[in-house]
């Protein structure tokens, strides 16, 4: 099959699934940004996107995209390493135009997945899953997501640790997106000399726009938590 057996086909799947995940992240980040301005607005969004059939279908769709993106990325990495053979062990200088993240996308991918498991436990399991099943997963109202997020990120010491962990995750995700968006654009045909610099700039801008809302929210609660510590 072309999408499985062709290198171009596999890169196309990576690009398409990656683009869909970037759009999801952008939407998710904008939704989270409501926390900074109005907790009521955030809770309203959560109710709309919470325990209902279309939210479940959406969650399953995102999980499928992540699985496809990761599996194809792992497959491409294994194939590339096998194709290089012993050459990958040779000591050589850094190639021009080759970034650190482009050579470590697999490491970045595994790191992102590790943090994703923590994120799903903290939010999907304790919010959407709890609301869907009626099973108590914590001492809070799953319909009051804003209060839960605030408690998670501002509780003395543990909240600050969570904030730092999430900020590290965002840096890793930014590096992944900074290379991934450019790689997707190249796979879609924008790989001539005229577009090389433009692709790098666009990739950096897109990665920054996607990660910025998440970062603002965590920094907001980090400042709040530190203020509570100082006032105690």
Helix-strand category: mainly alpha
How do the helices and strands follow one another from N- to C-terminus?
HHHHHHHHH
* Low-confidence residue ranges: 88-92
Which descriptor suits the 3D outline? globular
The residue-averaged pLDDT reads: 84
Work out the number of β strands. 0
Give the CA-CA distance, first to last residue: 63 Å
Radius of gyration: 20 Å
The amount of beta strand, in percent, is under 5%
Main beta sheet: strand number and arrangement?
none
The helicity comes to: over 70%
Number of helices: 9
Task: Give a description of the structure.
- It contains 9 helices and no strands.
- The protein is mainly alpha-helical and 232 residues long.
Describe the structure concisely for a colleague.
The protein is an all-alpha fold and 232 residues long. The protein contains nine helices and no strands.
SSE blueprint:
Blueprint: H1 2-5, H2 7-37, H3 39-48, H4 53-84, H5 100-103, H6 105-133, H7 145-154, H8 158-187, H9 193-231
Helix pairs in contact: 2-3, 2-4, 2-8, 2-9, 6-8, 7-8, 8-9
Key structural traits:
mainly alpha, 9 helices, 232 residues, single chain, 81% helix
